[in-house]
From TrEMBL:
<keyword id="KW-0503">Monooxygenase</keyword>
<keyword id="KW-0560">Oxidoreductase</keyword>
<dbReference type="GO" id="GO:0102099">
    <property type="term" value="F:FAD-dependent urate hydroxylase activity"/>
</dbReference>
<dbReference type="InterPro" id="IPR050493">
    <property type="entry name" value="FAD-dep_Monooxygenase_BioMet"/>
</dbReference>
<dbReference type="Pfam" id="PF01494">
    <property type="entry name" value="FAD_binding_3"/>
</dbReference>
<feature type="domain" description="FAD-binding">
    <location>
        <begin position="3"/>
        <end position="300"/>
    </location>
</feature>
<dbReference type="InterPro" id="IPR036188">
    <property type="entry name" value="FAD/NAD-bd_sf"/>
</dbReference>
<protein>
    <submittedName>
        <fullName>FAD-dependent urate hydroxylase</fullName>
        <ecNumber>1.14.13.113</ecNumber>
    </submittedName>
</protein>
<dbReference type="InterPro" id="IPR002938">
    <property type="entry name" value="FAD-bd"/>
</dbReference>
<dbReference type="GO" id="GO:0071949">
    <property type="term" value="F:FAD binding"/>
</dbReference>
Length: 358
């Protein structure tokens, strides 16, 4: 079987690793250059995501690159491993290449037909037995499968974050901490054994900013915006913001409440392309990692592509839609000062039994 993966980020690279583990030939086509993927903020891989990485043989490598205590090598009581997005991507990309996947960059998908042929903006084509859309919340594959597919929904929060060295903040290392201010929401985590704080802030932002508006926000603009919004928080918050390095990022918040059509012909969606959740859920990367393992397992065990695709959707749709709904509730709570009482055990305790048949 030859699988064509559209999108070479975290979801696409994890899918390539998972498919190589069942012997599939894999080509990954990414619209951006490789350098464009080596950027971004940080994310938390929850215990369910770490379990999926364990199936892929990459749990230990990911923990070593994270903020978990290197003396224990475990994610601590929270089961949460903060890791730079670029580092997780590089770990997955390297594993995909080492295990035989072919990665091709500057390949922007234009169209895909039901025979498994994908056409790219440069005029080239690739034909495969299956096409897997891992191209994120603004997925082209999603609209190829269903021209009437929903667009991402804007959640009126602006996400800003960065990395602060020579900074201190209270709390157990690698554990996510929260501070609510009158004009925004501040979250952070710290490193074991060194003065380093990784953080994010959510500020109410009624109208979705354009790319040009975000690009026009200078470092000084963002710093002032944050300090004004969080002026009633403890002093360490100001110190962390002021000590943050040059990589200060601001991005709008989106999710996908429901995507009615996940598959058509030989093409299927995976990760944010099918079920983007807000960062508040802490599950975007972990859901994609689960997806990759479950799809590979279904392709391994089911007698045909159509049977495997149907089983994958059956196993994944209910769970991921519930997580997206939870993320939306949690994001809304940040805007209203409300709280949600949801237990997260059902999310974090999930494990893919790789040995059991799909």
């Amino acid at each position: 079987m030859h699988a064509l993966v559209i999108g070479g980020g975290i979801a696409g690279s994890a899918t390539a690793v998972a498919l190589r583990s069942i012997g599939a030939d894999v080509t990954v086509c990414e619209a951006r250059s490789a350098a464009d993927l080596d950027a971004g903020l940080w994310l938390g891989v929850a215990s369910n995501g770490l379990s999926a990485l364990d199936v892929l043989g990459l749990r230990a490598t990911t923990l070593a690159a994270s903020l978990v205590d290197p003396r224990t090598g475990t994610a601590g009581r929270s089961g949460f491993a903060p890791v730079r997005r670029a580092d997780l991507y590089r770990i997955l990309r390297r594993a995909a290449q080492e295990r035989g996947a072919v990665l091709r960059y500057d390949k922007k998908l234009v169209e895909a037909d039901d025979t498994g042929t994908a056409t790219f903006a440069d005029g080239s084509t690739v034909t495969a037995d299956v096409i897997i859309g891992c191209d994120g919340v603004h997925s082209r594959t999603r609209s190829v499968i269903d021209p009437g597919a929903p667009s991402p929904r804007y959640i009126p929060l602006l996400n800003i974050g960065g990395f602060a060295e020579s900074a201190r903040a209270p709390g157990e290392p690698a554990r996510l901490q929260f501070v609510r201010g009158g004009g925004g929401f501040f979250g952070y985590t710290t490193a074991a054994g060194r003065d380093e704080v990784w953080w994010f802030a959510n500020l109410p932002w009624p109208t979705e900013p354009t790319r040009s508006e975000l690009a026009a926000m200078t470092r000084d603009d963002l710093t002032k915006l944050l300090l004004d919004a969080l002026n009633d928080t403890p002093p360490f918050v100001r110190d962390v913001i002021e000590r943050t390095g040059p990589g200060l990022y601001a991005v709008p918040t989106h999710d996908l409440p429901a995507v009615p059509v996940w598959r058509r012909g030989r093409t299927i969606l995976l990760g944010d392309a099918a079920h983007a959740t807000t960062p508040t859920s802490g599950q975007g990367a972990s859901m994609a990692l689960e997806d990759a393992v479950v799809l590979a397992k279904c392709l391994r065990d089911r007698p045909s592509w159509h049977d495997a695709a149907a089983r994958y959707e059956e196993l994944r749709r209910g769970r991921v839609q519930d997580i997206v709904a939870l993320g939306a509730r949690a994001s809304a709570a940040k805007l209203t000062d409300a709280s949600i009482e949801d237990s997260l055990e059902w999310i974090h305790s999930y494990r893919v039994d790789w040995a059991a048949p799909a």
